[in-house]
Amino acid sequence: MQYKISFLFILAFFLLPFAGKAQTDLPAENVEVLKRFEATLLDTKKQTTAGSLPKEDRSTHQLTYTLPTKNLEIQQPAPKIRPLGMKRDKLPEAFNGYAKLGYGIPASPYAELGYYFGGEPLRVNFHARHHSANFKNLENQKFAKTFVGIDGKYSTESNIGFAAGLDYARDKVHFYGYNHEDTSFVEDVVKQVFTNVGIKLGIANEERITGDIDYRVTGDVYFYKDNYATKEQGFDLGLGGTKWIAGKHPLKLDVHTDFTVFKDPETQNLNNIYFLPSFTYHGESFSVKAGANIVSFKDEFSVFPDLELSVNVIGSSLTAFAGWTGNLQKNTFKSLSRYNPFITSHPTLRNTNYTKYYGGIRGSFRGAEYSAQLGYKDAKDLALFLNDTINDYKRFTVLYDTVNIFYIEGSTKFSLFQGFDLLATLSQSVYKPKNEEKAWHLPALESNISAIYRMPDQKIKVKGELYIANGAPYKKLDDRTVDNLGALLDLSFGAEYGITDQIGIFLDINNLLNNKRERWNGYKVYGLNVLGGITAKF
Q1: Buried b / exposed e along 59-80 (16+ C-beta atoms within 10 A)
Q2: Residue 495 belongs to some domain of the structure
Q3: Is the residue at 245 inside a domain?
Q4: Residue range 265-314, pLDDT digits in tens
Q5: Partners of 132 in the β-ladder
Q6: Are 331 and 353 in contact (CB under 8 A)?
């Protein structure tokens, strides 16, 4: 329809000049218009169309782009890191030597000297100490202890370490456990002197050899005697090796030949040979040890288990453990006299055959370490002590009995604040002898609490210690009835002050409560005593 209208307009446009011309040719007379022209358009039919979308293309196309590679070289200088201004801590000066010299009340001289020689590959340590005291308020209550020792180690380039040691000890005590009201003795009659010469040798690898193996050879020889012609020699040769599986599971085998010859003047031999195989497996949160202790004595073999299981309940904060072990423990003249220096010079030597079952917990929490254990021991031929009423009541004879022991023990160590450390131990035992009435002279309760405080500048060190023990059972000399000795409550205090980095002074006040408890029947412990002096580093 639009096309037709446009065509008519174009046609009229071209005919317009001709129409004007025709009008000029019309006569001048009047013209009558019969009808006004009206243009009309015919009706047209509306055409409709329906559009359609193209088909959806679901095919995928992989486009490949090729980008040119271009390395950019940027010259960037290394940054300079400048530390913040911090004051550098002064390292403490190292000293090779140490000396301590003092004197106490009652008459009590003290001297100690230590020195370290050399470096790699040879390292040598020397140590000497002497301490004596004479409590003149009680006749013959005095002692003197002297020790001199030197040990060293030499490391070779072939990963072998050689160790050796030589020491000499002399301990003098006196049998002052008699009635001082009506009895008196000159010193030479009640004097007891123990001397010991010890030699130690050792060879071991310092780093694991091929196959993750460690090996060791040890030798220990001692010559022990008193001033009553009693002599004892001991020799212990040890061979051992460890095979590490996966770097952390040790498979061990140790062999010890422990020989003892005792003469008083009769000869007693106590020769044990130990075989100790074991394997320990360390898991992520547990460890298991399985082994045995096979002991040969007089051609008879005793087999003891060596088992322990530990489980980390809460990481390193709480570990539970349980075990079952046993051994033949030697009672030699040396070991017995060091536990009780007032024994007779003619004791009978035996092995203590014991089996132990135990369990407990241990761990660390916020800097504190702790351990607690309870258990049961079956001890055959356990050494007990009673006054010798036949030969010399001032001395103690050694007798043996089978004793069942129930025990509980614990220890802890922690820091309350910087510089202050507290340590505590506790042990409680219940003895049930098979034949004897009591476990003579064996204390059932012992506890030790010590505290140490160091000033931040390290110039002042203060320490305190409290030792508690119950009274051990014994038999009275007059009627042989059973009684208990008094309890011990020993409170001590000490302090050190560094005047310079090399010179200092110290003061120790022991047994502040002046407790006169008897550890062994007839032998009162030393009461209040003071020791002070100077220290030096060089």
Answers
A1: eeeeeeeeeeeeeeeeeeeeee
A2: yes
A3: no
A4: 899 999 999 999 999 999 999 999 999 999 999 989 999 999 999 999 99
A5: 144
A6: no
